[in-house]
């Protein structure tokens, strides 16, 4: 595991679907945005490879917490969104 609970991260601003067929588990609306590692969830076969029946290496998966008001321009201070994101979609801030 590369990231630790409480560590700030950024979701990579990448759009591989523009380069050809792919299977992505990272929401578009989070790409390029900052969040905080809530906790590691373990390592799992990469679903982006499994979707195409390719060999799939195990990749760490994290719960990443985002501030809800800044994402959707609604909600109260302290409201958050918790999303599962694979490590290869995250970068340290």
Description:
The structure is a single chain. By secondary structure, the chain is mainly beta. The chain has a single domain (about 10-90), classed as Roll (SH3 type barrels). The protein has 2 helices and 5 strands; from the N terminus they run ββαβαββ. The protein has a 5-stranded antiparallel β-sheet with strand order 4-3-2-1-5. It is globular. It starts with 7 loop residues before the first strand and ends with a strand. The mean pLDDT is about 90.
Tell me the overall shape.
globular
Number of helices: 2
The level 1 CATH classification is Mainly Beta
Q: Give the class from helix and strand content and strand pairing.
A: mainly beta
Indicate the percent of residues in helices. under 10%
List the uncertain runs.
Answer: none
Give the number of domains. Answer: 1
CATH T-level topology = SH3 type barrels
In the sheet with the most strands, the strands line up as 4-3-2-1-5
The largest sheet is:
5 strands, antiparallel
Q: Beta-sheet strand percentage?
A: 35-45%
Looking at how many chains there are and whether they match, the oligomeric state comes to single chain
**Radius of gyration computed on alpha carbons:** 14 Å
Cα end-to-end separation: 16 Å
Give the total of beta strands.
Answer: 5
Mean pLDDT: 91
Order of helices and strands: EEHEHEE
């Amino acid at each position: 595991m590369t990231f630790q609970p409480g560590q700030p991260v950024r979701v990579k601003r990448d759009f591989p679907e523009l380069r050809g067929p792919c299977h992505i588990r990272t929401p578009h609306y989070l790409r390029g945005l900052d969040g905080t590692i809530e906790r590691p969830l373990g390592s799992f076969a990469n679903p982006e490879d499994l979707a195409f029946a390719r060999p799939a290496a195990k990749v760490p998966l994290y719960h990443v917490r985002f501030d809800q008001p800044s994402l959707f321009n609604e909600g109260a201070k302290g409201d958050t969104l918790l999303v599962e994101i694979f490590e290869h979609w995250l970068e340290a801030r």
